[in-house]
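Progress report, Aim 2. The chain analyzed during this reporting quarter is listed below.
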Amino acid sequence: MFEVKGETRAEVRLPTQELRDDLPFWTKRLGFRLDMIYPADDPQVAVLSGHGLRLRIEKGAAEHPGTVRILTDEEGFAGGERLLIAPNGTRVEIDKANPPLVLPPTEHAFVVRRLAEQAPWIIGRAGMQYRDLVPSRLGGAMIASHIRIPDGGPVPDMVHFHKVGFQLIFCINGWVDVVYEDQGPPIRLTAGDCFIQPPEIRHRVLHASDGIEVIEIGVPAEHVTEIDHEMELPTPHLRPDREWQGQRFVYDMGAEGAFRPFRLPGFVARDTGIHEATKGVASVMVARPDGAGTVWTKHAGDILFTFVMRGGFTLEGEGKSPYRLSPGDAFVIPPGMGTRYADPTGDLELLEVTLPGRPETVLI
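Predicted structure tokens for the chain:
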């Protein structure tokens, strides 16, 4: 014997008062296919399919007419209209299937976010805990998150990608295993290491240690994460030079970095290689004091974000009260504002992210 299994389908039911008025709208105007209609002598129900959706339009149904969104890049679809109202009252919105990434203009501000302020940790994707480091998000230009997983082990993640302009993952505590498209077997990111995830590179978080903490920077602040149900990772080919929208994947191992003179007198820094890999979109540096005195400077870039990883110092800003900063604190300095990193401890270590990379710095 064998078991015959029927096909499983899902339908969205919509109401109508007069089916004959609806059929031409859904079939001729919007390109749906009529699959079923009954009874023959006085049709009360029509089932249509198209654009990945199955509709059941039923005379006298109790539901609200609702909204149907159709995503397409086809030029001239529905005569080029973006909003239609069906005869049965359903609102039909037509939007781009692959809209261009919009980078909002930066709303510059001097921002200081202290760990001691106990900003709330929010449960986010895959059970990870998120702490917002720049609440204003500079008008939507960027998001900076402190992410942690208190209890390690397997991470309930899926193969996914992000529609972003730039994205950084910098590990500050513990370790995490991640697998990336065309980058070989899983990679273990440990404290001091970082990745940049080029736009739309497929990846999956696999395992994490207890107490794993990372800093994640995303541009723009609001960006889409999509699940890829088809791709299996790791992929069979290693392609370290592949580019995604002009950017290469970077895995920078902090222990192997060399410290050289930094843009700020009184500091040295190691370059993660992200400036070169993104062709100047961003720069990521780890800076330490070199024992010399610090001076007042200002920068001419767009976004300058800094996270205190170790040690402490006093952040002085023109017209601002000084802030004594310690590990877990973060700040943003707007272009043209004079600042000084005073009285640094010998073990101070800063993560600095600039967009675009390597902004001009002027002594004042």
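The chain is about 5% helix and 45% strand. The first helix runs from residue 19 to 29. These observations will guide the mutagenesis work planned for the next reporting period.
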